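User: My instructor asked us to take a sequence, write out its structure as tokens, and then describe one feature of it. I'm not sure where to start. Here is the sequence I was given:
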Amino acid sequence: MAKRSSKTRVEEETAPAASGRGRRRRTPPPLSDGSERFEGGDILAEVEGELGGLLWNSLRNATVWARATDEARAAMAVPEAAALRAADLESIAPPDVIRAPLEAVAATLDRPAEVTAGEISAACRSISEWASAQGFKATAVDFMQAAALAMPSDASLAVTVGRLARWRAEYPRAESWFLFAVSESRRNGDWTSYARAFIGLGNLYGERGNLPAAKRAATQALRAAKRHSLREQEGMALHDLFVFAAHVNRVREADQYAAAAARVYGEGHPRLPRLAHDLAYLWLERGYHADALPIFLALRPHTTGYREKFMLLSSIVRSAAGAGETELFEETWEKAVAAIADTGEAVAAAWLNMAYGAELAGDMERAEGAARKAFEVAEKTREGKLRLTAEALLERVTAGPREEEAERRPVRHVRGEDTAEEIVALLEMGVG
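Assistant: Let's start with the prediction itself. The structure tokens for your sequence are:
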């Protein structure tokens, strides 16, 4: 039996041609269906009532037109169907934002040879963007796919289909569209879409747990971004490489990627606070509290969401305790306790941070109370991993002091101080 190649589809797609630089590689057509029983079927379950039926019929019209040849389109006119669609548009009264796009798609019923690919693609894209804003994930991906089928040479549309399919965890469909985008963007010289497609592939492989393939895809994106001076994509690729390095506990490598990403992002970049938080939390979990603390403090003006605020406060509690900043620990503890919600997303994680902080400060009573809250919330929200972690911490802090407990001293990361100072400076410059 022949041995199977260990190459991923990314490696096959980007490998040099066997003979000659001009040889074009063939990419299989992207998958056009996901988990639904028939194409577009999830729209009917997602969008209730007659509007769902109108959207589903419009999707069918757009995809049939997009897949047809010019000769076939000339014979597709059905005036009776066009009249019925006009009546449906009047009686159903879709939201104003998608009324004109639906009318543009309806034109394929009575004058299919006259409408252009650009018109159908733009209409389907508008409907997809509306659906995405409404949280209609299936509708969003199906109409964006119709837009891409109408304009297959526009690789940016293929990238967006891949991203939306990944959003729905439709990984095979997402991968096929990202790979199609790689092929089309390279053929057309659209290097922004080329880099974005590889960034999408890297995130997809990372979500599926294939970190080696994820790193290869992100590295390919980084090379393309540097070669073509695409600063935005360069920063995104470096950020992803940081995340992948952190997942496999390569702290020094993660530091390097994070520092490089921060420099590329620069002050005021919307992704800089997320990068800074991810790096500080990596250090926090590795015990480098003194290095993480200044970044968490610099993030305070950049944190606006309710959940993000109490999570940040809990991280400051933990890092301040580990860094020996007793006054800051006490001051922030009270703020965090007042801010944390009773239950919900990130609540168990915040209480767990608090428990670790109290343990580092030597306050076992508060550590026990916070660990118990983390355990109770994690049980309610069915966060199994957090529940087990909280349970282990609870057992440790209630067991009493160990006979020979080592003196707690702030631990500094070998490279952390310089990286922290650089990121803190960028965050402070970005405060309006």
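For the description part of your assignment, you could build on this observation: The mean pLDDT is 89. Try explaining in your own words what that tells you about the chain.
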